[in-house]
Design goal:
The chain is mainly alpha-helical. The chain has one domain. The protein has helices at about 5-25, 30-45, 50-70, 70-95, 100-105, 110-125, 125-130, 140-155, 160-180, 200-210, 220-245, 260-270, 280-285, 290-305, 305-310, 315-335, 340-345. It is globular and about 60 Å long. The two termini are about 15 Å apart. It is a multi-pass membrane protein. Belongs to the acyltransferase 3 family. Keywords: Acyltransferase, Cell membrane, Membrane, Transferase, Transmembrane, Transmembrane helix.
C-alpha cells in the first residue's frame, strides 16, 4: 500500500505533540500565571494527536481490508501485531531501563524496581491489561479493541449498515466524556473506570477513519479540515474554560471532551488531503517510525526527568520535547535495522 506523504508528515507532528503532553512543558516555572496559560495551551493544543492516530489507523485498515477483501484476516493481522508490540514494550518498562536506580536504591536497585513494578501489576491486573506496564501503552490496547469491534460489526452486519456502528461508537464516546471530563457536573456519570482506556475514546475515531476511506479526499479538503479542526478547538477550549470556572476541574486533566471529536476529524482530513503544503520530506521520511517512537519515548522522558525538575529555563521546556523526540527517533531507527526487532518499531 502506497504511503501518503502528507499523512506521514502529520504523523511526525502528532508524535511530537504526544511527547509534549508527556514532558509537560511550562508545568512548573517562576512566572506561574503566564506559564499556566502556556501549560494549558501546549497540553490541550496537542490533543489532536491521539484522535488523529486512531482515525488514520481506521482509514488504512479499511483500505487494506477492502483491497484484500478480507476483514477478519486483516483484523487478526493488525491485532496480533499490536499485542506483540504491547507485550514487548510492557516488558521493557517492567525492567529497570534507568540504571540510576542503583544510586537511589543501592546495588539491588534494579531488582527492587522489577519487584515493585510486578507488585504494582499484581495489585491491579485489570489496569495492566488495559494500559500495560507504562500508562501510554493504553493506546495499543484501545486501538486493538476498536479494530475488534469495528471488524466484527462489519463482518456480521455488512458495510452498508455502518451507520449503526457510527451510532454505537458515538454512544460510547458520549458515555466516556460524561463519565470522565463531565463526571463532576450535573449531567456527569460516576463510573469507576478510566474511559480514556478501552472502547470509549478510540472506537469513534477508528470508525470515522473507516468511513473516510469510502470517500475521495482531494487537496481541497485541507480547507474543510482546517475549518472543522478550528471549530473543534473553539468548542474544546470553551468546554475546558466552563468546566474549570464553574466546577473547578483543572484544564490539563482532560484527555478528551466533546470538541475533540471535531479536532480528530478535521486534522485527519487535513492529513489525507495530500496537499503540497504538507509534502515536507524532511519530516515525512520519519512517518513510518512513529509507532516505535511512541513505544520507546517514555524511556527518554524518564531518563531526562531529573534534569527537567531542576531546570525552569524556557529554552529547556521546548528543548526537552525535541531532545526526547530525537533520541527516540534515533533509537527506533537503529533498532528497526535488526530483523528480529523491526516488527516492534515499524
Amino acid at each position: 500500500m502506497n504511503r501518503i506523504v502528507s499523512v506521514d508528515t502529520f504523523r511526525v507532528l502528532a508524535i511530537i505533540s504526544v511527547i509534549s503532553i508527556h514532558t509537560s512543558p511550562f508545568r512548573e516555572c517562576l512566572d506561574t500565571s503566564f506559564c499556566g496559560y502556556l501549560d494549558v495551551l501546549f497540553n490541550q493544543g496537542a490533543r489532536f494527536a491521539v484522535p488523529f492516530f486512531f482515525t488514520i489507523s481506521g482509514y488504512f485498515f479499511a483500505e487494506k481490508a477492502k483491497h484484500d477483501r478480507a476483514t477478519i484476516p486483516t483484523m487478526i493481522s493488525y491485532i496480533k501485531k499490536l499485542i506483540f508490540i504491547w507485550m514487548f514494550f510492557s516488558a521493557i518498562y517492567i525492567f529497570p531501563y534507568n540504571l540510576l536506580s542503583i544510586l537511589d536504591h543501592g546495588i539491588l536497585g534494579p531488582a527492587k524496581v522489577v519487584y515493585w513494578n510486578l507488585l504494582r501489576i499484581a495489585e491491579n491486573p485489570v489496569l495492566f491489561l488495559f494500559q500495560g506496564s507504562q500508562a501510554h501503552l493504553w493506546f495499543l490496547v484501545s486501538l486493538s479493541i476498536s479494530i475488534l469491534i469495528a471488524s466484527l460489526f462489519i463482518h456480521f452486519f455488512k458495510p452498508k449498515n455502518i451507520i449503526y456502528l457510527v451510532l454505537i461508537s458515538l454512544f460510547l464516546y458520549i458515555f466516556g466524556v460524561l463519565s470522565k471530563s463531565y463526571s463532576e457536573t450535573p449531567i456527569g456519570i460516576k463510573f469507576n473506570f478510566n474511559t480514556r482506556n478501552g472502547p470509549f475514546f478510540s472506537t469513534i475515531f477508528f470508525v470515522i477513519g473507516y468511513v473516510l476511506s469510502g470517500y475521495k479526499i482531494t487537496n481541497r479538503h485541507i480547507v474543510r479540515g482546517f475549518i472543522i479542526m478550528l471549530l473543534g478547538y473553539v468548542i474544546s477550549f470553551g468546554e475546558i474554560y466552563y468546566l474549570s470556572s464553574i466546577y473547578g476541574i483543572p484544564p490539563i486533566e482532560h484527555d478528551y471532551v466533546f470538541g475533540t471529536l471535531f479536532i480528530g476529524l478535521g486534522t485527519s482530513l487535513i492529513a489525507l488531503s495530500n496537499h503540497s503544503i504538507l509534502n515536507i520530506k524532511i519530516l515525512s521520511k520519519f512517518g513510518k517510525y512513529t509507532l516505535g517512537i511512541y513505544g520507546i519515548h517514555f524511556v527518554f522522558v524518564s531518563l531526562l526527568s531529573d534534569i527537567d525538575k531542576q531546570t525552569s529555563n524556557p529554552a529547556w521546556e521546548i528543548g526537552y520535547i525535541f531532545l526526547v523526540f530525537l533520541l527516540s527517533t534515533a533509537t527506533t531507527i537503529k533498532l528497526s535495522n535488526y530483523k528480529k526487532l523491526n516488527k516492534f518499531f515499524v
